[in-house]
Every structure is written in C-alpha cells, then in structure tokens.
Amino acid sequence: MAITRLPSAGFSITIRIAVTADASSIGRLTTSVGEAGAIVTALDVVDSDPTHVIVDLTCDTADAGHADQVVDALTALDGVDVRKVSDRTFLLHLGGKIEVTSKVALRNRDELSRAYTPGVARVCMAIAENPADARRLTIKRNTVAVVSDGSAVLGLGNLGPAASLPVMEGKAALFKRFGGVDAWPVVLDTQDTDEIVQIVKAIAPAYGGINLEDIAAPRCFEIEARLREALDIPVFHDDQHGTAICVLAALTNALRVVGKRLEDVRVVVSGAGAAGTAIMKLLLRQGVGDIIAYDREGALHRGLTGLNSAWQWLAENTNKENYSGDLPGAIRGADVFIGVSAPNLLTGDDIAQMAKDSIVFALANPDPEVDPREARKHAAVVATGRSDQPNQINNVLAFPGVFRGMLDAHAEEFTEEMAIAAARAIADVVGEEKINPTVIVPSVFDSRVAPAVAAAVRAAAHNPSPLPAADPGPADLPEIAANASATP
C-alpha cells in the first residue's frame, strides 16, 4: 500500500529563479509549487532589472524525487529560468556540524605554561596518584563518546562508519545544545562484537559516559551488556532506552487524556528489535495489562518455533490470549498501538477496529506505520516521530537530560530507576492541566525538559528506590539476550 509522503524540512530546497517582472509572476511560482505538493517556506527577492526579477524560493518537499518534480514544474512555466537548485540539508552539513573550541585562553607564555608544559605535569601526577581526580581535572566530567559501527544507520541499514558520521555529529550537537554535554563521534571500522567491546573499553578513560548508537541487533544487546559489566561509567544504548523513556512518557499523558490506566490496557507493539524490546520491558515493569509483540515471524505466541531467546521469552511472558494472527487482527480491540518497525503496515480502517479512545504511536521514520492523517480519523491520540506532526516522540527529549544527570551524579551505571524517573519528568513537564490529544509531550525546544530530566536522574542515582512490583516481577525479567532480533 502506498501513501503520499508528507513534505519535510529534511528535504528543503532553495531554487534561484529568474522570472519576468510582471504582476502575476510571483503568484505563478508559488501556485506551481503548491500544485506539485510542496510547501513554500520563504521567497526572497535577490535582484531585479526593468524586465526580470531574481528570487530565491525555498520549499519543503517529500524526498529527492519530489524535489526534482517541483523543479521540473517550475522549469515548464513560461518566462521562468531556473538557475540553481540548492539542497539546504547538504549545505548545512558542509564541513561537518561540530568543532572543538578551547575553554582557556592561550594568549601568552604564562597561560601556556599553566595549560601545557611545565604546569600540566603537576596535574598529571595528581591524577596518577588519585585516578578519581580525572573527573574533576579533565574533560571526563562532562564528555560522552557517541559510538557507532554504522550497521543500523537510522532506518537506512548497514551503511558503514563513514556514512554514519553525519548522524553521530548531529547527536553530539544535540547533546551540547540541549544538555550542555560535550560529546564526540567515535565511528568504528569494525562490526565485530569483541573488537567493538575492546575498543570502547580502551578509550573509556577519557569519557564520563558511553552512548551507543545505530548498532544493529542482536550485537547491540551483547555489546551493551558486556560494556556495562566492564566499565565504571554509564553505558546507554539510545535506540533502546531513549526510545523506551520517551514512549513511556508519551503514553503516560496519552492515557491521562483518554482516562485509562496502564494496567487495564492492551498494547500491540510492531517491531520486537532493540527499541521495541526495550519499550515492552519498561511497560511490563510498570504493570501494563497485556502486550502483543509483532515482528517478521508474526505475533509472538506460545507454540511458535525457531525463535531466538529474547523472542521466546516475549512469547512466553506476553500475549495472554496467545493470539497468532496478523497485525490488523492483533490491533482489533486493542487500546494502544506502538510502531517501531516499518512504514505503511496499517490503514485507517485498521485503526477504526481498535478500542474506543484508542492511542496510536506510529514511530517509523520518515514514513510511519500508518498515515497519521488517516489514524486521526479514528484514534483519540496519535503520535509520530516526525517533527512536522503533532506529538513528536523524539529521543532528544530524553538522552541529553539523562546524561546530564548521570554526569552530575558521577553515576557508574544507567539504571531502570533512572529510566522511569526520566519518563515521569518528561510527562510532568507538560502538566496535567495542559495535556490534550495534540499535546502529550513537551516540545524538544522546551527549555524545562533537560533540567527536569537531569534532576530526576540525579535523584534516582543518589536515592535509588525499589521499583513497584509488576507481573512478571523485576526478578523474572531477563536481560535482553545477545541473539535478539532487529526490527523489520
């Protein structure tokens, strides 16, 4: 099933056009762009003469092919000369997105002598005598490694380390912008689990935390588990835990909107890979009524053979009625759908079969599991991962504040108490008096979010409290197995 993709700032283009200087020329340009399905976001006059006007027309398109269609439509107009087309996303990436700047002045010999030799030797000796001083006297106190092998870059697949670098740069920029955390991309030219673990262990002394990113399942689970065991700094796989925190926060407020309780709802999760498994584990910890996990093998249920250990555990501990059919059948009568899988799996008619006041989180990017416009005709609350739609569930709500809190607390590990505290903090930033079907999470630009999350994580680090018992209880929930599967 195909749907019309929505225009996005991620495919924004600026077109330099020379057009005849008559009263209708500018209107013809904007009308043509609109008829081609794009959205005009700016139109600037660059130059003019008695017969022509040169303008820069900026518009959002749906993808590269759509951008070409818009340009072709403009080129076909009489009296229009398309002179140059610039992809604004590529322009933004020229030369990279981050840089290193010095925190100290180096203006004379005196300053150089203290920042470097001979003065720096004294600091080195102090750390050698007391290694814990590295957190106080070096960048370690505020620096995170963003580690990837490029094996699962966004939804694009195994692109390798060089192609993953723009994403890791962006992640580092978000760390700084929203959490005040200095982060640096570490892209590795290996996809061997043992090598990745050894490399990260070797570089860990320079960092106060490790953020694993875009590493394919099942290796990501084993890598995280082994690094957590080996290191005395937090190891956080954002594809898992950041997503789970944000989904729990959004679901908390969505349930408030529709007046349902977590323990009473049935949830269907499409995608039992890194993100989906972490979401389901966190919801189970919180006592969700029931979950059906759906992936390439279908609905995970008891009696399904040939499953890896993580899927086998899900089959045995979710899906109380042992449903074994397709995805549309799974969501029939369900209260909540959470998609972390693939585009266009469901239709609006499928959503219409869900329970009254249903909740739909269709988070596949850039195209969600169901067209949000169709889903809103039937569901009470709809969220996506897109910035151009209401209720964007974006990991930037979580990871900057989570790491800010862990670094401030000198935490040695990331815990489930921190995850739950972070989710509650994100949900509470909105405020119960302000939530509604189109506002269940705060804006990523809400300046209150990261400090609130950081404070909650610091409190959880300093005063960990037992999690409320659920069925199954925390003791019965295994670590994610090393041979778990990726999302479809």
Describe this structure as you would to a colleague.
There is one protein chain. The chain has 488 residues and is an alpha/beta fold. It is built from 18 helices and 14 strands. The strands form three sheets. The protein has a six-stranded mixed beta sheet with strand order 11-10-9-12-13-14. α10 packs across α11, α16 (399-408) crosses α18 (449-462) and α17 (416-430) packs antiparallel against α18 (449-462). The longest helix has 21 residues, at 238-258. Mean pLDDT is 91; it is low at 467-488.
Brief overview, please?
The protein has helices at 25-35, 64-75, 88-93, 109-115, 120-129, 134-137, 161-179, 193-203, 219-230, 238-258, 274-285, 309-317, 327-331, 348-352, 372-375, 399-408, 416-430, 449-462, and strands spanning 8-20, 39-48, 52-61, 80-87, 143-148, 182-187, 209-212, 235-237, 266-270, 290-295, 298-299, 336-339, 359-362, 381-384. With 488 residues, it is an alpha/beta fold. The longest helix has 21 residues, at 238-258.
| Count of alpha and pi helical runs | 18
Helix % is 25-40%
Largest sheet: 6 strands, mixed
Strands in their spatial order, largest beta sheet: 11-10-9-12-13-14
The chain-level mean pLDDT equals 91
GO molecular function: oxidoreductase activity
Keywords: Oxidoreductase
Enzyme class: oxidoreductase
Protein name: Malate dehydrogenase (Oxaloacetate-decarboxylating)
